Amino acid sequence: MSVEGVGVPGPLPRGRHGLSREQVENSQFQRLCVAVLDAVGELGYAATTVADIVSRAQVARRTFYAVFGGKDECFAAAYDLAVNTALDQLQDTVTGLVGVNFADRVRISFDIYLAVLAAQPEATRALYVETLAAGPGLVAHRARVHRRFAEYILAVARIGVRDGELSGDPDPELIDMLLGGIDDRVRACLHERDASQLPSLSPLFTRTAIALVRTPE
């Protein structure tokens, strides 16, 4: 779920660097997004300040306010960017596999996703736990992410339909139940154990997903 790998991208070089204004702004945006996830995951949403974010991103406070209106806006942008980047990468990797059956596509999806979450514990806690503390401002963002995950599962299922492994598209309500269960188990693992144990959930998620999408109407 990384925006740009693990950790905050380094600062831009001082002086003349030959980068376009667009490249500079994109670098600042991404560094601030990674920094807010890191800060919120470590300190908690309520305790995180703009000073914490700009310190980790290594940008000036005025640069922060040139990009975002405040902490809420920065966190919402980081949430969208991180999850959309992860899903884009996952979809490119898994749906592009050749000669892989539906069950293995599902397993590989969860193996990859949970490994990424485990490698970035602060960002994972920010995205799965602290979003609930961020209040109503993130409701619409969580709903969009939920839809994107549902679309990804549907895309994988349609490959199974194409290959004759599934009889039809899965029930959207069952996909909603699956996603709710995944969110709940990820949060429980973070609370009861830690992020390093998230990959152990892959077999359970895989069995559940396959059972749900193959359940007849």
Cα shape? elongated
Instruction: Assign a percent range to the helix content.
Output: 55-70%
**Largest beta sheet, briefly?**
none
- CA-to-CA gap between the ends? 34 Å
Rg calc:
19 Å
CATH topology of the domain at 71-213: Tetracycline Repressor, domain 2
The CATH homologous superfamily of the domain at 71-213: Tetracycline Repressor, domain 2
CATH class wording of the domain at 71-213:
Mainly Alpha
What does this structure look like?
With 217 residues, the chain is mainly α. It has a domain at 71-213: Tetracycline Repressor, domain 2, CATH 1.10.357. Helix content is 69%, strand content 0%. The chain contains nine helices and no strands. α1 packs across α2 (50-57) and α4 packs parallel to α7 (139-162). The longest helix has 24 residues, at 71-94. Mean pLDDT is 87; it is low at 1-16.
Compile the SSE list and pairings:
Layout: H1 21-43, H2 50-57, H3 61-67, H4 71-94, H5 102-119, H6 121-133, H7 139-162, H8 172-192, H9 202-213
Summarize the structure.
By secondary structure, the protein is mostly helical. The protein contains nine helices and no strands. The protein has helices at residues 21-43, 50-57, 61-67, 71-94, 102-119, 121-133, 139-162, 172-192, 202-213.
